[in-house]
Specification:
FAD/NAD(P)-binding domain; seven-stranded mixed β-sheet; five-stranded parallel β-sheet; binds 1,4-dihydronicotinamide adenine dinucleotide; 468 residues; 3 domains; alpha/beta; binds flavin-adenine dinucleotide
Length: 468
Amino acid sequence: MAYDVVVIGTGPGGYVCAIKAAQLGLKTAVIEKWATHGGTCVNVGCIPSKALLHASEAFMEAGHSFAELGVDVGTPKLNLKKMLEHKNRTVEQNTKGLDFLMKKNKIDVFRGTGKVLGQGKVGVAGEDGKVQEIETKNIVIATGSEVAGIPGVDVKFDEKVIISSTGALELAKVPDSMIVVGGGVIGLELGSVWARLGAKVTVVEYLDTILGGMDGEVAKQFQRLLAKQGFEFRLGAKVTDVSKAKKGAKVTFEPAKGGDAETLEADVVLVATGRKPYTEGLGLQEAGIEVDDRGRVKTDHHLRTNISGIYAIGDVIAGPMLAHKAEEEGVAVAEIIAGQAGHVNYNVIPSVVYTSPEVASIGKTEEELKKAGVEYAVGKFPFTANGRARAMLHTDGFVKILADRKTDRVLGVHIVGFGAGEMIHEAAVLMEFGGSSEDLARTCHAHPTMSEAVKEAALGAFAKPIHI
Ligand code: FAD
Ligand code: NAI
């Protein structure tokens, strides 16, 4: 039987695309090589990491701020086994939910490795090596990404002592010390988990800043807050070797600008230096599908590859490697295939680091606006001046709003603070509608909320904040 759409890979890009396609009346199938749906995000990414981040934050709060709130619980005791069980249960609930959604939407599921055999034809290789051929009018490649490692360094992951993000979700014991190579999102989120549970964490980062690409002021403030939590940072340091030591592992690095090498040892080394597109066994070359210089499948504005009827979405193509970006692309492709006007607004994709406090950002950074020569106004408001933040002992951080100086249109919003990952969405909606800082500031915000700091920062961009 011929399908309208076959999606290869059921991460957030692929499964969302399949559901949307089915909802639009297209005969849809998916191919997945893992035992469960959900891809990196649900199995070894967003979901398990957030389960551990939440649990470890609760542990940290019980030990630190409960007493100040008048809740005496004594010294909290860690039950790591139970914490990991919570994480596994959360993953299982989500993968089971996806099984249900596949059935509910009458999506056929093929288990095995998908391969593009050409226009209108895909193969599924089962464990026995037998290949089943499927005919389909459209193919969507949604095969995601994998750990990149460190360019030029042979990192031998054993997922116990030298670990990737996957191993960092599974440590059976809290290490006394951990070196994190890469001060990006994974390093700071998973580093936070183990730091809160008692590990001494040192981040070794190539750039002069953590969270490269984020607004500079936000990154600096955030680094200070992490340092207060016990993180140590070695910035401007290029890691040239990671290997096992007598006890644990060692990391050798040299100043990025040149100079003498140095070696640090720790019980565990987490290598979090980025991810790369995953296309192994997909048959891209044989099918004549073009990739770019970083191995990402090339697509146009409609997410089409160079071969008619073959599309690609998510981590396997260019753009931020984020689950919600993959999902938006999945919906857009399904709509395009169904003859509708599918579209992704890449200017309005929020980015959240789920640490304590959270960091959330959308649109342009101050550095980007400066570089582009855009005249902008800045509105800022600290959580120390927010009543709700004081009531909850969450006064760290601030909101920063960047608006066009001439038109007042909001161009970027950056938040460090408790709940930043939720607050950023009012900025997303505003920016989707091309709103101004005055629109935001004149929108009544409930009192007392952390979100009032967003309103006050918006006031700061076009007039003056009230409460400072
Ligand atoms: P993936 O989720 O990687 O899914 C690809 C799927 O394709 C997999 O199931 C794979 O088995 C399957 N596949 C591959 N090749 C084949 C084949 N030939 N045949 C059949 N199946 C195949 N993003 C966020 O937005 N928020 C977060 O909080 C967040 N946290 C993260 C934490 C960690 C530790 C990591 C590693 C990533 C995190 N990410 C987060 C990134 C997010 O996981 C990815 O951006 C997202 O999963 C990409 O979705 P995708 O559908 O493109 O690919
Ligand atoms: P990243 O790109 O965010 O950070 C990698 C860091 O490693 C960079 O700062 C880079 O400068 C540094 N680095 C590279 N080579 C180095 C070297 N030799 N020595 C020292 N430092 C070096 O990648 P990360 O953290 O691995 O995350 C991968 C992807 O997963 C990201 O693109 C992110 O979008 C996604 N993700 C998203 C999350 C979220 O949205 N909350 C959470 C976790 C991951």
